[in-house]
Amino acid sequence: MDVADENLKYAGELLQDKAIPMFHDHNEALSSVQADAVMIITPPQTHMTIAFDVMKAGLHIFLEKPLTYSFEDAVEFVRKYERYDKKVMINQNYRWTPEIQAMKQAIANGSIGDIGYIDYNFRRLHNSNVDTWRVHSGEFLFTDVSIHHFDLIRYLLECEPEYVTAQGIRPSWSWCEGITVGGAIFEFPKGVLMNYFGSLSDFGSSTTWNGEIRITGSEGAVELCNDIPYLCGKGGERQELPLPQMLYSSQGYSLHQFIYSIRHDMRPDTDLMDNIKSHLMVHTVIQSIHRNERVAYDDYLQALNP
Ligand SMILES: NC(=O)c1ccc[n+]([C@@H]2O[C@H](COP(=O)([O-])OP(=O)(O)OC[C@H]3O[C@@H](n4cnc5c(N)ncnc54)[C@H](O)[C@@H]3O)[C@@H](O)[C@H]2O)c1
């Protein structure tokens, strides 16, 4: 299903003579086809409308990040989900790679001791040459890209921040109408600090989409450079972490988990109730930028309580 004729035509060419119905309108698809689940991989501005219609049809939902751009929509979504007996999973595929799993295992088995601080750097020159929804996004860096990084940090630390102080800019040479460069200081429980910097308008050497991550603790550090995970000792020695074998990774693992959670009636790790907390990291960053002040994450988390 796609609103654009040329995309449906192209899909038809790829599918050749397979008799798979195609639709211009998601409601038409929902009323014409018997299905168990819907994957919503459309621009973020359309996510809520489509998801709410799918909920009326009573199907499981696999939704691309970001959940939505608006906190108010996200709260409304959570309210509906609390009364919904089907799965709603957000695709946070960055979690499901061997390098991130290796870091997760090293932290979980105590290799770096008590975590003290996180240094997170993401730098790329990302040009959207065509006039798509990306060009018109207000806080594109944070809403569409940093969301992956914030979700990774929540996953690795297994906690949420308490306070956020952020700034963001739109460089004069940017292709995007909104923010493409910015930084945020996150204060986590027990005095743990994260310094985050992201740029989509960078002319220097690029990081990968994961970015460069260093998590330093009382006994050492884990770091990710060029998607290679390392364990660093107190004496400065550094060794590559072994990569776990994964039958599925990234998007493949997300899809596997979605189907598994339906078949076994389990909560997917990145379901709506989990993902709203990553979404809140983005929202509090944006609030901090707009209000030019340090923002309490918990004030917004409380707003999610019924
Ligand atoms: N998880 C990841 O790593 C990752 C990577 C890229 C994009 N994304 C996300 O996937 C989503 C889509 O991004 P994209 O790069 O594919 O965008 P895109 O612009 O390339 O494609 C979006 C498609 O949706 C169609 N569309 C627009 N409005 C629609 C509607 N109302 N109903 C049905 N179809 C509609 C468009 O015609 C287009 O074919 C976004 O939320 C984006 O953030 C996630």
TrEMBL record:
This is Gfo/Idh/MocA family oxidoreductase. SUPFAM superfamilies: Glyceraldehyde-3-phosphate dehydrogenase-like, C-terminal domain (SSF55347), NAD(P)-binding Rossmann-fold domains (SSF51735). Signal peptide: none annotated. Residues 100-222 form the GFO/IDH/MocA-like oxidoreductase domain. Residues 3-91 form the Gfo/Idh/MocA-like oxidoreductase N-terminal domain. It holds the Pfam family GFO_IDH_MocA. InterPro entries: Gfo/Idh/MocA-like_OxRdtase_N, Gfo/Idh/MocA_Oxidoreductases, GFO_IDH_MocA-like_dom, NAD(P)-bd_dom_sf.
